[in-house]
Amino acid sequence: MLLVSSLLLLVTFPTVLAQLPLPNPPYTPPPPDQGTHPSNASTPNSQWSTLLGNLLYFYDEQRSGKLPSNERVSWRNDSALDDGSDVGLDLSGGYYDAGDYVKYTFPLSFTLMSICWGALDAGQGYEAANQTAYLDDMLRWGLDWLIKAHPSPNTLFVQVGDGNLDNAYWGGDRSIPAPRPSYQINNTSPGTDAAAQASAAFAACLSLYSNRTLSASSSPLTMANNSYASTLRSHARDLYTFATNATGGMQTYQTAVPQSADAYASSGYSDELAIAALFLALTDSGVNASTYYSDAVRWYFSGNLEQQLVAGDETVFNWDSKTPGIAVLAAQLAAANPDLVSGSNTTLKVWQSAVEGYFDAIVNGTGRSYLTQGGLLIFPGDSDEASLNPALNVAMLMTRYASANLTSSQAAQARYLDFAQRQLDYALGKNPMSVPRPRH
């Protein structure tokens, strides 16, 4: 494990900037023994509001560190308060991974990026469900920890905790086994993918806190905070520069931190670079935005990512693989800001062709994925351990693309929305067992 330099030991972090006040009394999930109740055609639909509230409540359950006085989860305790002490830093806080007590930056950054992207597209859903303050709370708990994990421009902590030690422990959060070592990437031992993905998270959330949208039909959330946005901007830009200009060159982060390989090994870094550049293009304007867009196009083609969308080779969208999301996000940007792509050979039509070729292989069953007898989309090798993850991520991308009116035809729009709805229906109970399905 590499130790931080003495300069890093002196670093100070910005105070937490004001966030939205949480509802009082707080939202808590309804008792499960009550079952579901008809929504009675109410607006907003009470079932969807409950589902959204429950999803955000899950992140409260995953909190690490010193908990706030308004913590909603009665059984979650202050925990892992000494994280980072081995390197002279405060790395407490953030979220535990899955059912474990290790903290991993790479998948967390993907999660934060994805949630901010969704809020940019459909933020009014949070408003209607009275969950905007909880969205803000959830994001800041993760982003504030990422800020701690990035104590200098060319240093990013990518893991806190020992995976082997932690996986052998099945107890509560008051007796988490020690030691909890802190692992970093830096200028001489870089991790291109992890740095770029963290940049993408900061950039996507910067757009959210700057009241930007991805289409004229989207209404921004009431989360604008210029001071917080400025902090996110600084980290987004520094991390992208770190990812692209580290003196140690470009490499996957598990090369520098092999301890992360068992849980979250990365298969490459071109996709993280491309999606980070696209989100940075959204946060900027003029020449800077065009430069970021050109970077994204360069990473996309130099990494041969377009091949990952071709029938038979089509990849999933998840913490490791961002390629399908790159094409969708690029189409959104190209449609919303034609000036951004002026002078480029990679225009909206190029992205439409890539996205719809990918979607059509899935919908028509001509690619490597297939539907179970009950109708669930399966990607062999990817759905084995997380059965709903690939299916619902495809549904999310299809809904985002079609709802933004980016399709080349109305028939394609209807086709994608129908397929996405059937995947969502399956997850929520319209399946052979007639019960909602867990994520795994």
Write a structural description.
With 440 residues, this protein is mostly helical. The model is unreliable at 1-15 (pLDDT under 50). It is 47% helix and 4% strand. The protein has two domains: 52-68 and 80-266, Glycosyltransferase; 305-440. It has helices at residues 46-61, 105-122, 124-128, 132-149, 163-167, 192-209, 226-245, 253-256, 261-264, 270-283, 286-302, 323-336, 338-341, 348-363, 388-403, 410-428; strands spanning 103-104, 155-160, 182-186, 370-371, 377-378. A hairpin with a 5-residue loop joins strand 4 and strand 5 (377-378). It has 16 helices and five strands. The strands form two sheets. It has a three-stranded antiparallel beta sheet with strand order 1-2-3. Strands 4-5 form a two-stranded antiparallel ribbon. 44% of the residues are buried.
